[in-house]
Amino acid sequence: MRKIDIISNQKKAWNVILSMHRIKVIKGDITSIAVDAIVNAANSSLMGGGGVDGAIHRAGGPAILEDCRKIVAKQGGCKTGAAVITGAGRLPAKYVIHTVGPVYNSGKGKVAELLASCYQESLKLAVANHCKTIAFPSISTGIYGYPKAQAAVIAMDTVKTFLAEDHEIEEVVFVCFDDENYDLLKKESG
Ligand code: AR6
């Protein structure tokens, strides 16, 4: 290996270590978190649902659904692995980024890549909208049935890799609703 490649690999490893300090794992309700953007685990209709999606629309009020309707009118919903952004209504956050996780065992596409894409696309949209802080729920690990341990590895690896390349985002918060996700993400964050 050339010396320049060794230095470049060392720099990458160092950036990954530094990115760990910009990641926080907490237990709680994402609707109460005051960050620039919270992420919603939505469905492709963008018309609301159960789980964290229902909680965000209930707490944020009708303004979020109004923004979602405008997006649907323009582009007809949101594909699995993609993300869109709306206002946050009455929530303490400034924006809601709606992403659609894969249904585990749906047989449609590569679920791991689609789940990673949810985190990547949400982070890209946050940067494009000048967000410095962003909070994620554990996408796909509820109604969509993704095994929590596998989802935690994908979530953490994807965020660490993104942060190592990006220097705009100052903090990523994983907001876990249950003990199992909290323990898994805490383990992966170290
Ligand atoms: N704050 C943080 N996390 C939460 C909250 C909350 N208030 N409520 C639930 N969770 P899910 P999915 C956690 O089912 O699996 C909806 O109907 C929950 O414990 O909300 O991606 C959509 O419209 C779990 O770990 O999302 C879709 O149809 C995680 O959030 C479908 O569910 C994700 O669980 C999406 O399913």
UniProtKB/TrEMBL annotation:
Gene3D superfamilies: Leucine Aminopeptidase, subunit E, domain 1. Residues 10-190 form the Macro domain. It comes from the Bacteria. InterPro entries: Macro_dom (IPR002589), Macro_dom-like (IPR043472). This is O-acetyl-ADP-ribose deacetylase (Regulator of RNase III), contains Macro domain. It holds the Pfam family Macro. PANTHER family: GANGLIOSIDE INDUCED DIFFERENTIATION ASSOCIATED PROTEIN 2-RELATED, MACRO DOMAIN-CONTAINING PROTEIN. PROSITE patterns: MACRO.
